[in-house]
Design brief:
Blueprint (H helix, E strand, L loop, with lengths): L6 E7 L5 H9 L18 E7 L2 E8 L6 H11 L6 H10 L1 H6 L1 H11 L3 E7 L6 H11 L5 E6 L8 H10 L5 E3 L7 H14 L4 H35 L1 E3 L10 H24 L26 H7 L11 H7 L8 H7 L2 E2 L5 E4 L3 H7 L3 E4 L1 H20 L19 H11 L15 H13 L7
Parallel strand pairs: 1-3, 1-4, 4-5, 5-6
Antiparallel strand pairs: 2-3, 7-10, 8-9, 9-10
Helix pairs in contact: 2-3, 2-6, 8-9, 9-10, 9-15, 9-16, 9-17, 10-15, 12-13, 16-17
Organism: Spiribacter vilamensis
GO molecular function, one term: GTP binding
Pfam family, one: DUF3482
């Protein structure tokens, strides 16, 4: 398939219809072109390539907006000498230097159409259907290129999608696809490519190759995201710090050291997820987005984060077998019986488990380390799933707030057991000085990843 011809796609339409936004979302390139609410932002023709490895499959040509279609249509009709040869009339129009001077941007668009294999006519369906849009289609039709109407902003409350579909059918344009450039949707993206393939048999190999590539790419992205979150959880579960003091009323530096290590590790995870989806941390400043300037606005150990992503911590603080077994803290990992010996575990609401150990234990075994609580591990997972949900829905054209579905705290006994196992292997955490990667660690990470819910939204 490497010798398949490259498909040139012209992105055309009225000013401010969302042409550049469409290219951004299809290429997953937030920096392509310039997107603003005002019209006429794009003033030149720009190209973006869609490549599978070294093989370029498609070229997307972004173009300035059409603003003077009624006048251009009048000129076309005046220069037409044959009723059914619009292409010849268009060529004569483009050869007229007066037209090039009077309509420089429209001239660039029409010249582009002659070099493309198919045209995507982008429609802002929030706008009413006006005659000037029908004139645009009539002018573009003179290029003798297949035209596919792309209905943009269909998810808006003021969408007029049904009106536009009816109007397009009346001008015999029945190849239509709904595509909101602000929302990321692989299914809609692939539907668009299939519509293009239906119009161009010669380019089916290139389009099929690109569709296969996108499906593989999406699967790999999802699996990498799962593995990224699972690695965070194993690193956090196995992380340990030694107690420095025994005063139960005073702050213990080991607790803050553990917190700082977990905060930094969570930030690395968030940045990795952003990079996987081709975003950058500086892209987001709004309150509804999970991150602010690339960082979590709430400390994972704070009461606010606990309320947002998990249960109240009081249920975790208590004495006896259950808590001792849950945290597995101790020199070799506590058994059910030694959990009872330890007695009261405090610090759950701060995300760390600390043992108030009787003197007999300390003389025999020394101070046990502190580790991350089950509750905090669940909170970490929920926050990263919240981020993934938002990334899965956010198109690269988005310049405004897009709320991600907040991930609810979830229970999974298999994951809890796996993380308890990790807690007994401090060498599995990259946050510990004695970290060693191993096949066992990687196996647990893989199993933890498999327990994560299907966070993909389409």
């Amino acid at each position: 398939m490497t010798d398949a011809p490259i498909l040139d796609v012209g992105i055309v339409g009225h000013t401010n219809a969302g042409k550049t936004s469409l290219v951004r979302t299809l290429t997953r390139n937030r920096s392509f072109g310039e997107v603003e609410d005002r019209g006429g932002t794009t003033r030149r023709v720009s190209a973006a390539t869609l490549a599978d490895g070294d093989a370029t499959r498609l070229r997307l040509w972004d173009s300035p907006g059409l603003e003077n279609a009624p006048t251009l249509l009048d000129h076309l009709e005046e220069t037409s000498t044959q009723r059914h040869d619009g292409l010849a009339a268009l060529q004569r129009l483009l050869d007229d230097p007066h037209i090039a001077r009077q309509f420089p941007e429209e001239t660039r668009v029409l010249e582009l159409t002659l070099g493309c294999d198919v045209l995507l006519y982008v429609v802002d369906v929030r706008e009413p259907v006006l005659e000037k849009y029908k004139d645009e289609l009539a002018v573009l039709a003179s290029s003798a290129r297949p035209i596919i109407a792309v209905l943009n902003f269909v998810a808006a409350d003021d969408s007029r999608e049904s009106e536009w579909r009816d109007a397009l059918a009346r001008v015999t344009l029945h190849t239509v696809v709904a595509f909101d450039a602000r929302v990321r949707s692989l299914d809609t993206e692939l539907q668009l490519y299939k519509k293009v393939a239906s119009q161009l048999n010669d380019f089916e190999p290139a389009i099929e190759a690109w569709i296969s590539h996108r499906q593989t790419e999406e699967h790999q992205c999802r699996e990498a995201a799962r593995s990224t979150i699972a690695t965070l959880l194993v690193d956090a579960a196995a992380a340990q710090r030694s107690l420095k003091k025994t005063d139960r009323n005073g702050p213990d530096p080991s607790l803050e050291a553990l917190r700082e290590a977990i905060r930094a590790r969570e930030q690395v995870c968030s940045e990795t997820l952003l990079a996987l989806y081709a975003f950058a941390d500086e892209d987001y400043e709004d309150d509804d987005w999970p991150l602010a300037s690339g960082y979590w606005p709430e400390d994972v150990f704070s009461v606010d984060a606990l309320k947002r992503y998990g249960r109240q911590g009081a249920g975790y603080a208590g004495a006896g077998v259950g808590i001792g077994a849950a945290f597995d803290i101790g020199t070799g990992g506590l058994s059910l019986g030694t959990g009872t010996l330890l007695g009261l575990l405090v610090g759950s609401s701060t995300g760390a488990a600390r043992a108030l150990v009787p003197p007999l234990w300390k003389r025999s075994y020394g101070q046990p380390p502190v580790c991350v609580s089950d509750e905090t591990l669940e909170r970490l997972a929920a926050r990263q799933l919240h981020l993934i949900n938002a990334l899965n829905r956010r198109g690269h054209a988005t310049t405004e707030t897009l709320e991600g579905e907040q991930a609810a705290l979830f229970e999974n006994t298999e994951r809890v057991a796996l993380l308890h196992k990790a807690r007994q292997h401090p060498e599995w955490s990259s946050l510990n000085a004695d970290f060693r990667d191993s096949a066992q660690r990687n196996e647990v990470i893989e199993k933890v990843a498999a327990t994560l819910p299907d966070f993909y939204i389409d």
